[in-house]
Amino acid sequence: MPATVLAAIPSPDRSVWNLGPVPIRAYALCIIAGIVAAIWIGEKRWVARGGRRGTVSDVAVWAVVFGLVGGRLYHVLTDWELYFGEGRDPVRALYVWEGGLGIWGAISLGGVGAWIGCRRRGIKLAPFADAAAPGIAVAQAIGRWGNWFNQELFGRPTDLPWGLEISPDRPNTVPGATTYHPTFLYESLWCLALAGALVLVDRRFRLGHGRVFALYVMGYTAGRVWIELLRIDSAKTVLGLRLNVWTSIVVFAGALVYFLLHRGPRETEVEPSGPRPPADAEPADSDADSDAEPADAESADANADSDAEAIRTATAADATGADASDDAPPQATVLAADPDGEPSDTPDRTARDPGDAERRPADDDSGDRPGRAGDAARAPSPSDA
């Protein structure tokens, strides 16, 4: 006597709604909703760790684009016969909205995009990944509902009360079976539980250096193994096991090794507080530069004419070596010359460069006034030497 199904999860009768000429696909909406949730959760966790608002959104631009490309590439490479086999249309490999994103390619190439985004922001990838890990798990939980709308990636036939109804004309169905294991729901619930566990463990032990992300990878791959063993869709096999099972085992081992090797307290600073300088900018002491500018201007003005400076130096030496009188030292007599170059019996302080007269006020007509104190300060007296 065949088993009677007392209850079942119905599948949607459609996965596309037409808004005029524009098709709105449920699978795409689930992916977008997951991305929004991941960014929102990651932003809150990043700010709580000391980061700035907007950083997660900026990095997500790179991570999402690379992740979508990587996820699609992995799917096409591992199921290439669906697009490049006999009678297939290779152009359909670009139809992402029809489903087919490999999580391994999405995480791998998405990580490359996140690394680029973090590098442009001047932050390290490890603490960013720790902040983003629970949000990524939530995004996967939401995105899996796209498989429900598409009636795909279901498990073996079952008569359990939560069995999933699948239309008999869908690929990979079993003749005579009407309900199957809802593997999309299993993975969705597993990812939600994983996200909650990551938050609790991180709050309890204050993990850092990428260890939260390593826990996410280990938790997801552990669940993916038993969920993958329930699925009956076509897949590559190695030694009797589906390729995704082997991939999960290898990735789990790698994450475990990383978790054990990278220890230490959580990072105290995850993002610089001030604006990041350009990459080609050289550090400089602004205070020293600002103080040096007036000095440089004064030095340039004082040393504009070497001959005039020599005359002022000799005059200053005369002023410090004797009181104001007409008895000038020989040095002043020798250096003070008339414009024709002939020596004069008395110091002639007016025989200077014409440009010097514009830079300094004219001397007193008394002829016996000593040089300015500023000149004396700039040149030591011969007696001091």
Describe it for me?
By secondary structure, the chain is mainly alpha-helical. The chain has 2 domains: 16-261, no CATH class; 307-378, no CATH class. Helix content is 54%, strand content 4%. The chain has 14 helices and 6 strands. The protein has helices at 26-48, 55-78, 81-84, 103-121, 125-143, 145-150, 183-205, 211-228, 243-261, 286-302, 306-321, 330-335, 354-359, 373-378; strands spanning 16-19, 22-25, 164-165, 179-180, 237-238, 241-242. The strands form 3 sheets. A two-stranded antiparallel ribbon has the order 1-2. Strands 3-4 form a two-stranded antiparallel sheet. It has a two-stranded antiparallel sheet with strand order 5-6. β1 (16-19) and β2 form a beta hairpin. α1 crosses α2 (55-78) and α8 (211-228) packs antiparallel against α9 (243-261). The longest helix is centred in the first third of the chain and has 24 residues, at 55-78. It is globular. Residues 279-305 and 319-385 have low confidence and may be disordered.
